[in-house]
Design goal:
Length: 321
């Protein structure tokens, strides 16, 4: 595996420049009856890196990727909106289960998606296309005519189902064309990807909900994880030849985090969970109490029994805290 992969692309990184940090997010409070002191923490990891000398094309592509430019349409939950909130402008369509990654869009009439590409601007459109009842294939098309099918470059691939209008919106055709009008995991990018991105586009998992990114690799110990990027700077690298090279700096901040307990005073750690359905069963030795969602009743605490909806870490009892 590469040192750093962002949405499948092995991003060039000067390994000696790589820095990672972990920030604790804490919330301390008492129960309304004053009987239990909570110490709840989550951890968020951040990373910063510098590229080796890269060309202008790679620099520009990396900047777009780090900034999370573009829109992702997963069609889950019958959603007509992309990950940045742009919607479907026109067409007749429905949603059904059985797509490449869950729900898919079925176009009964040509469907137009708002993309904010801008008139005459470069673009990339990627999507899964069903070619014969659940025979899904991945298609990438760029504004300069490059195409990929299932991760393999093939500029001759027929893509008559796709149109980008003069206003920069994306149109996916209905079932009157060569295919049945079923689409999944649509990604619209306001730039033309470089070949390395097309060659390594994720094939086994959905694309990330831009601007959020999926990051992985040897430099991401908990990967794959979701992150937001921050483009820092780009500087010229003196080079003797005609090709100008650049060195870029960027930040990545995980958006998720672990849930953990920590000691409060001299007592053993105790975790309370208030969200129904959330469990800590992956933590070794944790005793999960099967009970209704949290109730303010504390009638069992004196007997050393955890009240409903709470989770007790090993080595502690409720009358200790």
């Amino acid at each position: 595996m590469a040192f750093l992969e962002i949405n499948g692309w092995a991003v060039p990184v000067f390994v000696e420049s790589w820095n990672d940090s972990r920030d604790d997010v804490e919330a301390r409070a008492r129960q309304f009856d004053g009987s239990i002191f909570l110490d709840t923490r989550s951890q968020h990891s951040g990373y910063s890196g510098t590229t080796p000398p890269i060309t202008a094309a790679v620099r520009d592509a990396l900047r777009h990727v780090i900034q999370g430019d573009g829109q992702h349409w997963d069609f889950e939950g019958d959603s007509q909106y992309g990950s940045r909130g742009l919607g479907i402008l026109s067409g007749q369509f429905g949603f059904a289960n059985g797509g490449k990654f869950g729900f898919f869009l079925e176009a009964f009439q040509d469907v137009t998606f708002e993309t904010a590409f801008g008139t005459g601007a470069p673009w990339t459109v990627a999507y899964w296309r069903d070619e014969s009842f659940l025979d899904w294939h991945h298609i990438i098309v760029t504004s300069d005519g490059r195409k990929w099918r299932d991760g393999v470059r093939n500029d001759a691939e027929p893509t008559t189902e796709l149109t980008v209008t003069s206003e920069g919106n994306v149109v996916l055709a209905d079932n009157s064309g060569p295919f049945n009008g079923w689409y999944d995991d649509l990604v619209t990018l306001p730039y033309a990807i470089i070949d390395e991105q097309g060659d390594t586009w994720p094939q086994s998992v959905p694309y990330s909900d831009l601007p959020r990114l999926q990051i992985d690799g040897d430099g991401i110990p908990d990967g794959p994880v979701e992150a937001l990027g921050n483009w820092q700077s780009s500087t010229d690298v003196p080079t003797p030849g005609a090709t100008q090279f650049y060195r870029a700096q960027f930040l990545l901040q995980e958006t998720g985090g672990g849930f953990r307990a920590s000691p409060t005073g001299d007592a053993d750690p105790v975790v309370e969970i208030f969200v129904p359905g959330v469990t800590m069963s992956d933590y070794a030795g944790v005793t999960e109490v099967d009970a209704p969602p949290y109730s303010p009743s504390v009638e069992n605490e004196g007997a050393g029994n955890p009240p409903a909806g709470k989770i007790q870490m090993p080595g502690s009892s409720w009358n200790e805290v």
